[in-house]
Amino acid sequence: YDQGRALALAGDYDDALALLNAADQSDAMVLTMIGYSKRKSGALHEGISYYYRALAIDPDNVNTREYLGEGYVSLGRTDLAEVELGRIEAVCGTACEQYRDLAAAIEGSGDWR
Q1: CA 12 to chain centre
Q2: CA 32 to chain CA mean position, Å
Q3: 71 and 77 Cβ atoms separated by less than 8 Å
Q4: pLDDT tens, 64-91?
């Protein structure tokens, strides 16, 4: 997971997916990073489906909720992104990084794409 996550965050989505797909698919963070890699590489809907799977395991995962919200912003569904922002706020408040990052994406600022 750690190597796959590092590759995904560095933008090496194909290599990240190779590692993450071999990892434990019952782990919410593995599913989240697969979703992230899929979304960032252009498979937006497929990425979102992985976020749903991750949230079924860990509904309070603010990382997953942030990335799902960013996916919704990419789809032009800021209404759904706002729902995710509210869920993040309920878990960690407005000062956590995930809240700030999703709020910036909704506002159209920051480097979230």
Answers
A1: 16
A2: 6
A3: no
A4: 999 999 999 999 999 999 999 999 999 9
